[in-house]
Every structure is written in C-alpha cells, then in structure tokens.
Design brief:
This protein is 18% helix and 31% strand. The chain is an alpha+beta fold. Strands 1, 2, 3, 4, 5, 6, 10 and 13 form an eight-stranded antiparallel beta sheet that branches. A hairpin with a 4-residue loop joins strand 3 (65-74) and strand 4. The longest helix has 17 residues, at 115-131. The model has no long low-confidence stretch (mean pLDDT 91).
C-alpha cells in the first residue's frame, strides 16, 4: 500500500520539480512506466543484492555495509560499461571517505546484461538531460545493503552531503525487518527541506546535486536480522570524479 503522506509527484512534473525544487520523488509504478518495463522486470534485478561484498573501507570500523560498484557511459544512444575503476570523491563532498580510491567488487555481469538495467539507466539519463542537456553522461552505479549486524546500520555515515556530481538517484530495492532509514532532503543554501521514509520497492528519489543535500538516518533491527537495500546512481558531465586525481 502506498504511504499517503510521501511527496510523490506525477512523472510529467519531473523536469519542473528538479528545476524548481531540486528533487523529485516517484512511485514505483511510475518508475517502471518511465523505464518502459514492468515492476516484475525490475524485480529480476533484486536477487543480486543478496550477493554483495563487504565494504572494507568504512572508517568507523563498521561491518554493516555491503556493496558493488560499476561505471557506465551514456552517450544518448547507448549505455556502455567502462573497464572497472575505483570510486573516488573529494573531501569537500565526503569528509569521512573522500580522497580515497576505493575499489569495490563490480556488479555481476548478469545484472548489467539484464534488459531492465539498461532501460532504467537510459530512462533516468534522459530525465537528467531534460534538465541539463549533456552527453555523454558519466554514470556510477552503487548497489548497497545496509544491515544491522552491528546493531545499527548507517546508510550515510558521512552525514548530510552532496556527491559532487550533477544528478543523484536513490532507489529503494527492499526493506526487511528494520525501523528508521528516513530520507532527508534539504536546500543546499537554505533551511527548507523534506523528510520521508521510502517503504515500497522501486520508489525513486532523483536529486539535483547542486541544489540540495541529502542523507538517510540509521536503521535498527525489528527482529534478528534487518537490512535496507538501495541502488544509488550518479550522473556527471565531462568525466568521472577522480579521473585525474
């Protein structure tokens, strides 16, 4: 059942919302419609989250995050996976883990080859281009599982932040046995913002990274083991971050 108080919008308002508010939240059905596939098609991507690898770079010493990471170039006509490369952010955008070349396990080949994968990324790239025409887009894909192995899991241990890109998508894939995980979006240069909790798989939050900062609050278990699975995608014009770092 759809949570009634989430600030969902009509997909026809997506471009206007990104330009005026810096973010847009879409219902799962509308995400599938935008991607030109069904929710069942998107669901075929979900099992790979059970096979993510431990993030060994957490500076807080936690073991609550598993992830995979791959990079792509969207030239407007096709989506091409690049040779595997490290993820890098400047300390100005990630004070906790910035300045580090973090080499994570790549996405599974079967996930990248899944037709729903390209449809989703190409559709969202088109949405980004409607706001800021740019090709090619340098796209980074992060599969995350935040679990409650440590008793608490931190989706954004760096706190409220920007990512140093042009656009960011945060897509909920699954919640299991947890409380918390509230999403918070605030104006980068002002006090206004929104707080809500995504609960339905394939709910999409699309952000203009220059306009807003964002974070997700820690999760706690409701039972023996809980976790929160997300897909985070970023689009950047000109190059990947850290290409010359």
């Amino acid at each position: 059942m759809t949570t009634p108080h989430l600030p969902y919008l009509d997909p026809l308002q997506l471009t206007e919302a990104l330009r005026n508010n810096g973010y847009a939240l879409l219902r799962p059905d509308d995400v599938a419609l935008l991607a030109g596939c069904s929710l069942l098609d998107l669901d075929t991507l979900a099992p790979s989250w059970d096979r993510l690898e431990l993030d060994e770079y957490l500076k807080d010493g936690g073991r609550y995050r598993r992830r995979r990471h791959s990079c792509f170039i969207d030239d407007g006509d096709s989506l091409t996976q690049t040779p595997h490369r490290a993820h890098w952010q400047p300390v100005e955008y990630n004070a906790l883990h910035g300045g580090m070349h973090r080499l994570f396990a790549p996405m599974e080949a079967a996930s990248v080859a899944n037709p729903a994968w390209e449809r989703l990324l190409r559709a969202l790239g088109t949405a980004c281009s409607a706001v800021m025409p740019a090709h090619p887009w340098f796209v980074e894909a992060h599969q995350f599982r935040i679990d409650t192995t440590d008793g608490i899991g931190r989706p954004t241990p760096e706190g409220a932040h920007r990512d140093g890109v042009n656009f960011v998508a945060v897509i909920l894939v699954k919640r299991h046995g947890i409380k918390g995980g509230e999403t918070r979006v605030f104006d980068a240069d002002g006090p206004s913002g929104q707080r809500f909790t995504m609960t339905e798989p394939w709910t999409l939050l699309l952000l203009d990274d220059a306009a807003v900062i964002h974070e997700s609050t820690p999760i706690q278990p409701l039972g023996e083991h809980g976790y929160r699975d997300t897909l985070v995608l970023t689009w950047r014009a000109e190059s990947f971050q850290g290409e010359n770092a």
